[in-house]
Amino acid sequence: MSDAGVSEERLRRWRMVLGGGEADGTGCTLTGADAGMDAALGALYGGNGGAGRKRTGERSAGLGGSAPNVARWLGDIRTYFPTSVVQIMQRDAIQRLGLSALLLEPEMLEAVEPDVHLVGTLLSLNKAMPETTRETARAVVRKVVEQLEKRLAAKTRATLTGALDRSARISRPRHADIDWDRTIRANLKNYLPEYRTVVPERLIGYGRAARSVKKEVVLCIDQSGSMAASVVYASVFGAVLASMRSIATRLVVFDTAVVDLTDQLDDPVDVLFGTQLGGGTDINRALAYCQSKITRPADTVVVLISDLYEGGIRDEMLKRVAAMKAAGVEFVTLLALSDEGAPAYDREHAAALAALGAPAFACTPDLFPEVMAAALEKRPLPVP
């Protein structure tokens, strides 16, 4: 490309970034697809309906209040941008322009690009959703759930099946099943210096998980509004865990009330529509319910998914966690289960749980199978 071509391309890019207007300084005019892309960006991030930046320097948005305008804009951004960018722009439009009410119209839902954040928005509107929209909303949610299951289910089952096999120790293992690390440590007293070797009087091996229930998992999920993405992922993982014969899975959601959705675990879409995002938080009450359902503490993993902004009795919450751990329960606290980055959370409560030996940390969906495998095997958690 010639120097003139490079300069022209640079001006074009700066024009796209600055959004046009009298003060952008580029003097560049956009045409064709560039003009369409700029109009779509300007409608959301620019001033006054796509006119770019206002003279005052303030930025506002201008999709208008009508469903046809928004539906047309949704079609435009899907034309000009890749899916990952479309999802971000949809999320920004809902937050910046207050378009949630328009999502209650079936025509609008058919035009959007489904993703986890859109599902969270739909769930928050669940109670206000008219019957004419509900089936369309369920179809959107099911599409996202199926995408997540396709991405996460196989790895989760494989990782946890291996963990269940290894958690069953046997004393007369086959050669392929010997746990060499534990065997060597158990026989260090039999070390022969002259031969520089350990004589293994006792072999320790991995068992093979039987088809009967080996472990119990309780997913205790905060359904306050800030946890929307975590609720979606946790529901999908709950369904995957429930499909494994060796794990008895219970799923509990809470705000200031507690709802047990275990009987709906065969369909994560039913689980999600059984939640009600928003409201307060009473972690202590939720843990009290979960504690009452534990019958085999030494074989139970409790996963609390919450930002820990407790509206209930803090000291009682901590006492319950301490009591469960003392009984042999593996207790895991996830501040978020999502790809959204570092979450906001109550640092004082997180520190108090860490002092009890229950470190609180954010977890991505891809890391979750490894976290659960470590908890099932009672080994240190892979805290990021």
Structure description:
The protein is 47% helix and 12% strand. A hairpin with a 4-residue loop joins strand 2 and strand 3. The strands form 3 sheets. It has a 6-stranded mixed sheet with strand order 7-6-5-8-9-10. The protein is built from 14 helices and 10 strands.
Supply the key terms.
globular, 6-stranded mixed beta sheet, 12% strand, 10 strands
Structural class: alpha/beta
Structural Rg? 27 Å
Q: Give the biggest beta sheet.
A: 6 strands, mixed
Average pLDDT rating: 82
Residues in β-strands, percent? 5-15%
**Series of H and E elements:** HHHHHHHEHEEEEHEEHHEHEHEH
How many strands in all? 10
The level of helicity is 40-55%
The dominant shape is globular
End-to-end separation in angstroms reads 45 Å
Order of strands across the main sheet: 7-6-5-8-9-10
Number of helices: 14
The low-confidence parts are 48-61
How is the topology of this model organized?
Layout lengths: L2 H16 L13 H14 L21 H14 L2 H15 L8 H6 L4 H9 L6 H37 L1 E2 L9 H7 L4 E2 L4 E2 L6 E2 L8 E8 L5 H15 L4 E8 L3 E3 L7 H6 L9 H10 L7 E6 L8 H13 L3 E8 L9 H9 L4 E4 L4 H10 L7
Parallel strand pairs: 5-6, 5-8, 8-9, 9-10
Antiparallel strand pairs: 1-4, 2-3, 6-7
Question: What is the gist of this entry?
Answer:
The chain is an alpha/beta fold. Helix content is 47%, strand content 12%. α6 (116-124) packs across α7, α7 crosses α9 and α7 crosses α14 (368-377).
